[in-house]
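Need the bound structure for magnesium ion, inputs here:
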Amino acid sequence: MRQYVLLATATILLYVSRHYSPLLAAIAFSIIGYQATDVLIPCVSPAFVKIGLYGKDLSKPGKPVIPESIGAISALVYLFIMFFYIPFLFYKYLVVITSGGGHRDVSVMESMAQEEYLFPHGKMSEYLSAVLCLQSTVLLGMADDLFDLRWRHKFFLPAVAAIPLLVVYYVDFGVTYVLIPDVVKTWFPTSKTALNLGAFYYIYMASMAIFCPNSINILAGVNGLEVGQSIVLGFISLVNDSLYLTLGTEASKEAHRFSAILIIPFLGVALALWKWNKWPAKVFVGDTFCYFAGMIFSVVGILGHFSKTTLLLFIPQTFNFAYSCPQLFGLVPCPRHRMPRFNENDGMMYPSRAELTEKPPKKVMLPVLRLLNTLRLIDIEVDAKTKQIKSCTNMTLINLVLVWFGPMREDKLCNRILTIQLAIGLLAIAARHTLGSLIYGHDNIQFL
Ligand code: UD1
Ligand code: MG
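Answer from helper R.:
Posting the output first, comments after.
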């Protein structure tokens, strides 16, 4: 019954979107995406297991086997939705009368001004490059899930997937200027208002395409966390977009409408995946989903020209990445899995540890580990006789939450991390619109 009500709502929204806003069609496609993903997951999951795409749920008694890489279904549904969305997005430009020879005599919106009447090929190419980039990301993510690539190889995959986006950016927009904040201008007086970063701007965009997907992939290991953090990121982005769409300047409205158009359908497919991946997980999302979700936010930030704000939303992921660096760069041993340790006796999660007796950390890290322990940023185990460090907790935000708040059940742990992420994200957005205007001298939204 609920499905029929949802689908009827989607149909009505699709119909009325023609006269109002394409955002209504985005909500309709989000509902359709939710339904399609929710129906497809249980239907096709056994086929994934059949071809060997399954994983052990390491934090459950008996480590049951469940289908892996199911996020690929959400990603594929999303891509198809985005294809079907094109006519609704460009509805007002559809030609209804032509005298032939390619003339666009009458389009759906007859009342449009002449310059508005021209089909926005630039916008269309931007949209298609975003979809193409996401499609390449899904392909490379699938390669990782199928062949379990090494970290040193898979780390750079998203930059390869972002090539279509960067090339279209170069051809269509090509702006490589960044605004110089007012504070900098008072320290170093200059008449310039912007700085041209040239090729470095492309390196910056490629780095963002690498960072967002990988940072989601390494904040993982607890049921529901990969998809849960993506939903929270999507929600905070939408809060920010709504601020601009209601109070923003015309130029910023364009960018944030584009962001909302990509994120609303994403939330639909991600919520359906969350239903199956939340504790106790019936499926795993796989690296395909982490790359795909991360890439959505880089695409939105790059094409919307608000990549700094996008990075603000990634504060927990950035912290987790920076905190993980000693292990990622081999200064401290890094086990294959750094997820928390499950205790079968009480069903609780405890911080997992890196054993340092056989494989000691680099010498330079010994005082750092002791300092981090004093600051309660890790927990170390010291040999009573030799005073040597025997082990330390793995450096992930998940383990840190357990060090601070004590052992807890897996679902509580996931919810705690998502609540922290939501609070930080909303605070960051508030700070962006208060401190941002102090630093740059203006903000693109005008509070009454
Ligand atoms: C990243 C992390 C790794 C973490 C893993 C969990 C780094 C450098 N890598 O590796 O520490 O352990 O994600 O996804 O930080 N699994 C569960 N429960 C879950 C999610 C995953 O048991 O809720 C296990 C399953 O066995 C599953 C496997 O993790 O098969 C998936 O791991 P994978 O995504 O391949 O790990 P990485 O992304 O390489
Ligand atoms: Mg992973």
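Comments: The mean pLDDT is 91. The chain is about 60% helix and 10% strand.
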